[in-house]
Amino acid sequence: MTTSTDFWAIVEVMGHKKFAGRVTEQVIGGASFVRVDVPASGDELAYSKLFGAGSIYCITPVDEQVARAVAPKCGESPVSVWNLPEEWQTKIRARSLPAPQESAGEDYSQFDEED
Predict the structure, then answer these.
(1) Dihedral of CA 33/34/39/43: which sign?
(2) Which residues contact 14 (CB under 8 A, 6 or more apart)?
(3) So where are the chain's domains?
(4) Which comes out higher in pLDDT, residue 59 or 102?
(5) pLDDT tens for residues 22-71?
(6) Pick from 14, 20, 17: nearest CA to 44
(7) CA dihedral 64, 67, 71, 72 (to 10 degrees)
(8) Nearest partner of 41 among 20, 18, 55, judged by Cα
């Protein structure tokens, strides 16, 4: 028995994330992935996500109307924004600054600490 690999569903993956949309199979580099095409809704543009079979723990087939209604409620977005702690950002910025230039003949010896 063969089943269709083109259907609407709610796909639940690791990290307690849900994606609702049209599900197909896509092969990249010889590896098979489950592709979820999430439809556009409101201000969110349509996007696609590819998942390896090992990261999926539930696929619930639904009709298109249900998938389109559930998609915006999943709260997922095509790209996640990651921020480093401010302390790390400061250190990275400091390392990317140019090295101090040699003084142009000025004498700063008067500011040297004496032992």
Answers:
(1) negative
(2) 55, 57
(3) 6-75
(4) 59
(5) 999 999 999 999 999 999 988 888 999 999 999 999 999 999 999 999 99
(6) 20
(7) 70
(8) 20
Which residue's structure tokens are 């000025």? 106
- Gap between the Cα atoms of 19 and 70, Å rounded: 8
The residue among 35, 28, 75, 30 whose CA lies nearest residue 55 is 35
Which contiguous run of DSSP H or E holds residue 109?
none
For 6-75, give the CATH class.
mainly beta
Amino acid in the structure at residue 66:
V
The pTM score is 0.66
Q: Which two tokens stand for residue 5?
A: 């690999």
Give the residue among 30, 22, 29 at the shortest CA–CA distance from 4. 22
